[in-house]
Structures are given as C-alpha cells and as structure tokens.
C-alpha cells in the first residue's frame, strides 16, 4: 500500500511547460483518475510518477520517500499501457511468468501468483493459449494480469481501455473497479473520458493546460465544479450558464436573471460579473417558473428528453419527462432549484463560495 505525493511538479519541453508546478496527494489505496482533454499533461504527469519522464522541477514522494531521481524499476510500481506489449508468440502463462522470472522469484511462488491472478481475472482457462490469438478483451485482461502478478506498490494506467469498443469498455470498467475493491492497490488512471472517470474513481483530478482545475470526489466535481471549465467538461449535457445582470455582492441571497429575481444560496464572495451554473436535470418546467425560454430543439433519450431553449439569459438545456410534449417554437417557464445553483465569477471563471459549498467543505452537504 502506497501514498503518492507530487510537490510543485513541473515538466517543460523547451519553452513549453506541459505540467505547471502541480501539487497533489494520492492517498494510500485510492483509485485516482487524471481527467482532461488531449494535451492537458495527464500522460506526462503519469510518466513522471513512473520515472519514465524526468521532472524539470519539483518532487515525487512514494510513502514519504523521495523517488524523484529513482530509476523506474526501483520504484516498484507497474505501468499498464493502452497497447501493452504482450509477447504474441508466448502463452498467457509465459507472458505472466516473464516479469516474475526477471525478478528471480522461486518457481512455486511464480506458479502461485499466476494461479491467483488468472483465477481473479477469469482467464485461467486460457493459460496455455498464445496471446496473439486472443480477443481484445482477453488480451487486456492478460495485460492487467501482468501488472497484478508483480504485486506492485501502485498501478499506473494510461488509457488502458482506449482501444476497446463501448460495450467492452463498460464491462472492463466494472472488472477494474471490482479488482480494485479486492486488491485496494493505489491506482492512478489517465483518461479523457468522463464516464470512465465517474465509473472508476474514488477521486478525480481534472487537468487543463498543465494545471489542476479541481481534485475531488466524483460527486464533488459534479455538484460543486471549482471552475466553469470543469462544469462544462463534466456532465452530459454539460452545466448551463445563465448570465446574471449587474454585479453580485457577498451576502446576496438573490440575483437578477433575465429581468427576474432568482434566489441563490447566500454568497460569500463578490464579483463585477457573474454567471449562474445549473444542471439540465435541476431545472423544472413549471407555470410559475421565473425564466421563460423558447424551444428550439428536443431530443428523446428513452428515459427522458432534453429540450434546448433560448432565453434572455442565454441558451439553456433542460431535462424533461419522457412524455412531455415539446414543440419547437413553444414557450416554457423554468424554475431554478435554489440549493442546486452555483455561481461563478465570469472573469476568473472560478466558483464563488456559497453557504452550500462551504457547508459541503465541512462535511455538511449530502445532496
Ligand atoms: P493525450 O491524451 O493527447 O496524450 P495528455 O493530457 O496526456 O494528452 P501529454 O501527453 O501529457 O497530454 O502532453 C502534454 C503536452 O506536452 C502536449 O502539448 C504535448 O504535445 C507536449 N509533449 C508531450 N511530450 C512531449 C515531448 N517529448 N516533446 C515535446 N512536447 C511534448
């Protein structure tokens, strides 16, 4: 079991800084996902933890030991790549034995670890098959098996499900999470896919342009996004942003949106310009709603519909009942659930602290 700490970790390529002095603590036994768009520095961060990339500055600690300049193989952590280099002409047993033979483990110990691992991954019937002839999913399991047999202190995974089709991906997400629940080995997993992150993570670290935007539980990221970028990156459809009229002052309990007063959780911050953030599922269609909008499109998703409306505060998406009659051109009135509203400073694009977000920070929020 291992805790990982990154301290002011930086990686520059020439004048381009790919990872900008990030600080992050990964607790022992947690499944942590680095999530963000292409080029945000996820892989570079992971490679630095593995020792495959040298930091330009900063420190990496494994269980409080400084490993910043320790060679990859002396860190005792296993990297699982997207296209894991299995030996196609070797059997599953030989592929799994290979890293253990390199470590000069005793034959009986090797056999015991292979038996445990293949039973856990349900690939014991494939032990004598060559990996070259296996399906993608089975190959992925063997790749995981090769990491597991080593019993490393931590797993580092770089988009390991990237090549699988959607159905397999979902299955492998469940497998991986079950495996983690059993092994409880500290895991750092890189992906750009929010569904994978939500399904797997104890903790999600959202990155953008080499910086950490937010590090929180999946619920925290979804409910109280720290920035407008996170609010827009997480959730399908993403969070709506409604323009607030005029400045907002600390202590305010309502703001003006499209000429109407909207109640908000009491604000602890002020901003010259602000926007309200609210999820499509937290808007209610109601005759007494304060925000009027004209339907421009409606999409049917089986369990619900998503209507797109134009309002005086901007374009808004709202989740409605699957049976709602939604006709383009029709006007709907929307009610905003006060406790679900978040406010952002429109200039810094950061969350303005509210009573609810503070209550949550002190463990008082269970929404
Ligand atoms: P992706 O999912 O596309 O791999 P990522 O978030 O993992 O994205 P990184 O691979 O960490 O991003 O790359 C971060 C930035 O650093 C990118 O702009 C990339 O082009 C740049 N970069 C990475 N490695 C090098 C290198 N060896 N030389 C120059 N630039 C690099």
Describe the model.
The chain is of the alpha+beta class and 367 residues long. The protein has two domains: 4-223, P-loop containing nucleotide triphosphate hydrolases (Rossmann fold), CATH 3.40.50.300; 237-361, OB fold (Dihydrolipoamide Acetyltransferase, E2P) (Beta Barrel), CATH 2.40.50. The chain contains nine helices and 21 strands. The chain has a six-stranded mixed β-sheet with strand order 6-7-8-3-9-10, sandwiched between helices. A five-stranded antiparallel β-sheet has the order 15-19-16-17-18, with no helix packed on it. It has a four-stranded antiparallel β-sheet with strand order 2-1-4-5, covered by helices on one side. It is elongated and about 75 Å long. The mean pLDDT is 91.
Provide the fold topology.
Layout: E1 4-13, E2 16-26, E3 31-35, H1 42-50, E4 57-62, E5 65-66, E6 77-80, H2 92-102, H3 107-120, H4 136-148, E7 154-158, H5 166-183, E8 186-191, H6 194-200, E9 203-208, E10 211-216, H7 218-223, H8 228-233, E11 240-243, E12 254-257, E13 260-263, E14 274-278, E15 283-285, E16 291-300, E17 304-311, E18 314-321, E19 331-336, E20 342-345, E21 351-352, H9 355-361
Parallel strand pairs: 3-8, 3-9, 6-7, 7-8
Antiparallel strand pairs: 1-2, 1-4, 4-5, 9-10, 11-14, 12-13, 14-20, 15-19, 16-17, 16-19, 17-18, 20-21
Helix pairs in contact: 2-3
Residues 13, 18, 36, 38-44, 192 line the site of adenosine-5'-triphosphate.
């Amino acid at each position: 079991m291992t805790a990982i700490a990154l301290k002011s970790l930086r990686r520059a390529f020439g004048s381009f800084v790919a990872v900008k002095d990030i600080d992050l603590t990964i607790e022992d036994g947690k499944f942590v996902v680095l999530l963000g768009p292409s080029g945000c520095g996820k892989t570079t961060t992971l490679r630095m933890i593995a020792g495959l990339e040298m930091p330009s500055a900063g420190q990496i600690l494994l269980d409080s030991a400084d490993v910043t300049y320790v060679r990859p193989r002396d860190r005792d952590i296993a990297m699982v790549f997207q296209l894991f280099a299995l030996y196609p002409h070797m059997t599953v047993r030989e592929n799994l034995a290979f890293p253990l033979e390199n470590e000069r483990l005793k034959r009986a110990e090797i056999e015991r670890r292979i038996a445990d691992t293949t039973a856990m991954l349900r690939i014991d019937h494939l032990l004598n098959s060559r990996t070259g002839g296996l399906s993608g999913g089975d190959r992925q399991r063997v790749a995981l098996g090769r990491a597991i047999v080593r019993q490393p202190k931590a797993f580092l995974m770089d988009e390991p499900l990237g090549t699988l089709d959607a159905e397999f991906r979902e299955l492998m997400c469940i497998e991986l999470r079950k495996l983690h629940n059993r092994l409880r080995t500290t895991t750092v997993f890189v992906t750009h896919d929010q569904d994978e992150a939500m399904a797997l993570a104890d903790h999600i670290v959202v990155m953008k342009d080499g910086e950490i935007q937010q590090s929180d539980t999946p619920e925290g990221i979804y409910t109280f996004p720290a920035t407008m970028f996170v609010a827009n990156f997480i959730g399908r459809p993403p969070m709506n942003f409604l323009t607030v009229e005029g400045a907002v002052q600390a202590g305010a309990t309502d703001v003006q949106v499209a000429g109407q007063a909207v109640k908000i959780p009491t604000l602890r911050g002020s901003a010259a310009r602000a926007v309200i953030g609210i999820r499509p599922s937290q808007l209610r269609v109601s005759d007494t709603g304060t925000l009027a909008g004209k339907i421009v499109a409606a999409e049917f998703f089986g369990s619900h519909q998503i209507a797109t409306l134009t309002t005086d505060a901007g374009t808004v998406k709202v989740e409605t009942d699957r049976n709602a009659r939604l006709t383009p051109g029709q006007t709907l009135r929307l009610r905003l659930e006060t406790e679900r509203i978040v406010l952002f400073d429109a200039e810094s694009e950061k969350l303005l602290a509210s009573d609810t977000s503070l209550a949550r920070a002190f463990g008082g929020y269970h929404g």
